[in-house]
Amino acid sequence: MGLDEQREEREVLKSIFPDEFTDISDTEYRISILLDVINKEEDESKSPTIILQVNYPTAYPDEAPQLEISTPPNAPKYALLDLQEDRSRLMEALQPTIEENMGIAMVFSLVSALKDSAELLVSERQHAAQALEDVQKAEAEEAENRKFHGTAVTIKSFLEWRAKFKNEMEEEEFKRKEEKEAEDKKKRGPREEKKLTGRELWEKGLVGKIEEDEGGGDALEGIHKLTVQE
User: Fold this and answer.
1) DSSP codes of every residue in 80-94
2) Is the distance from CB of 20 to CB of 49 less than 8 angstroms?
3) Sign of CA dihedral 40, 46, 51, 52
4) Which of 70, 151, 187, 211 could covalently link to 222 via disulfide, CB atoms 3.0 to 4.6 Å apart?
């Protein structure tokens, strides 16, 4: 294809992209591509625009055109598309189209392929971000539900709880009894020594001892004193 054929393709492209086509030289031009992306309702970001710059080699279309991908100057940054990182991936996505159309005019097909690839890349990232948001939301809801539902009770956990509760109750009861006994003892005061009756003194064999200690009379007189009169 000579220069005349190249000019013919350019005229066709200008008619298809009247506002997007910009001449640079006889063999070079650029086409702006507005991506069709659907943002979330709360996302007010404008759809991104990318630029495909085409430079015809002398042997085009038997030789692939020289291509560059860029963004418009001062364009706002779009969160889900960064050409500094994504340029090589988008260029690779154009290779099958170049190989399939070698020998015929291919720029329109390249523009369509680039648009589709970029929109697919944005869509994949939107879905990934939504999936991450859904997981985080589900985890937050699960954590919130655990506050109200508590830990699920099993037979094992119930038996462990019951044994622990029983031990705590027994310890508390023992402590309460000790405290009560200490309080009762405090109220009673010192214990008075009980006085023995005469009979209890006799049964315990303390009568003779008492008389000897007192040193009064002989033992016989003491026995007569304790004799029960009939």
Assistant:
1) TB-HHHHHHHHHHHH
2) no
3) positive
4) 211
Please give the pLDDT value at position 139.
Answer: 82
Q: What are the tens digits of pLDDT across the range 129-165?
A: 888 888 888 888 877 777 766 666 788 777 888 888 8
Written as one string, the DSSP assignment of 146-211 is HHHH-SPP-HHHHHHHHHHHHHHHHHHHHHHHHHHHHHHHHHH-SPPPPPPPHHHHHHTT-HHHHH
Question: Rg of the Cα trace of the chain?
Answer: 54
Q: Is-contact 88 66, C-beta < 8 A?
A: no
Looking at every residue in the chain, the average pLDDT score rounds to 82
CA dist 50 and 111 (Å) reads 10
pLDDT at 175: 86
Query: Phi and psi dihedrals of 159, rounded to 5?
Result: -65, -40
CA nearest neighbour of 57 among 108, 113, 1, 114: 1
pLDDT for 95 equals 96
Burial call 90-108: b when 16+ CB within 10 Å, e when fewer: beebbeebbeebeeebbbe
Asked whether the beta carbons of 143 and 97 are under 8 A apart, the reply is no
Q: With beta carbons less than 8 A apart as the criterion, state whether 75 and 34 touch.
A: no
pTM to 2 decimal places: 0.59
* Helix, strand or coil, per DSSP, at residue 64: coil
